[in-house]
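Reply to dn_fold:

You asked what the input looked like. This is it:
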Amino acid sequence: MSYQSEELIREVQGQRIRAAMSQRALAVRSGLTQAHISQIETGRLEPGLSSFIQMARALDLEVVLVPKKLLPAVEGMLRSTTPEFLAEEGQSALFAKGERLLAKLKKLQGGSAALDRIAEYFRFLKQVRLSKDDVALVEDSIKILRHIRADPQLRAELDNIAGLLQVVRNRIAHPTEAPRPAYALDEDHDA
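and this is what came back:
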């Protein structure tokens, strides 16, 4: 795979992961097979333009040609409209701390369904970019985990933490759109 297409594929793959979409779900949305998407993402297959566009559009991305002179302006506009996210290094460190606490809790208290659920949600959430509010919720969960380690009486809190993390995971994995009226009086809406 050429260097130029590799960068584009990584961008599309990153968007798929941030959208918490499996290759199988992307296959359904794009009309490509899951095996085809897997081969493209692993670099075993150079995607054709039509396959690449199908994947991008299934992820709500659009492939456009921009004159080189306008590229800095377009990139600046894209950066200014993107929500603020925690730097990936900080997010990685946060989840590493949480995973270390979970490992210690498992050693001290043995395994539990709640600890397994928390570990599963950490694995999912560390792969996506989180908003500041979601990061704060994860930080709060890790603080509670630290207290649980010190006070075994707080084990019931594990289910609460798992529930909070599940809410974040579900909100990211299954985004909802605001309901739209069936009819509109003004002419500005798409037909």
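Confidence is low (pLDDT under 50) at residues 82-87.
Hope that clears it up.
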